[in-house]
Amino acid sequence: MFDSPLMIPIVGTIAGTAMIVAIVFIVYWFKGRERELQAHQELRIREMEHQRRMKELELEIERTRATRPADKV
User: Fold this and answer.
1) Each residue of 11-66: pLDDT tens digit?
2) Which residue, 3, 20, 24, 40, is the most exposed by fewest CB within 10 angstroms?
3) Read out DSSP for the chain?
């Protein structure tokens, strides 16, 4: 296959081009993965804030329920 001296530059060109394409693909894949992880982290933070607000509302409701029977007496 590599007996012909003409094949060496052709194979070298193809391999070099493939290597550049692979490097560009890896860089974009890592950048995309980083954006995905940041989005998941942001969603998790929002979820935790929401759960905290819901807990505060539940406590406020319990306080309101606890004070209402005392007002009626």
Assistant:
1) 999 999 999 999 999 999 999 999 999 999 999 999 999 999 999 999 999 999 98
2) 3
3) ---STTHHHHHHHHHHHHHHHHHHHHHHHHHHHHHHHHHHHHHHHHHHHHHHHHHHHHHHHHHHHHHHHHHH-
pTM to 2 decimal places: 0.60
What does R_g of the chain's alpha carbons equal in angstroms? 31
Task: State the virtual CA torsion across 27, 32, 36, 41 in degrees, nearest 10.
Answer: 50
Whether the Cβ atoms of residue 8 and residue 2 lie closer than 8 Å to each other = yes
